[in-house]
Amino acid sequence: MLRLQKHLLPLHRSAYPIVHLSLQRALLSIAAAAASSSPGHISAEDYLVTTCGLTREDAAKTAKYLPHWKSPAKADAVLDFLTGPALGLSKAEIALLVTKDPRILSSSVDKTLRARLEGFRRHGFSTAQIRSFVRGAPFALRANIDEKLSFWMSFMGSPDKFLRIIKRNYYLVSSDLDKVVKTNIRLLQERGLSIQDIDNMCVANPRLLTSNPDTTRAILVRAGELGIPQNTNMFMQAVSTVAGLGPETIASKLKMMCKMLGCSNSEVATMVQTNPQVLRCSKEKFQRVYEFLTKVVGVDAKYIMGRPTILMYSLERRLAPRNYVMKVLQEKGLIRKDASFYSMLTVTEKLFCSRYIHPHKDVLPDLANAYSSACKGEITT
Question: How distant is the alpha carbon of residue 343 from its chain centre?
Answer without folding.
Answer: 35
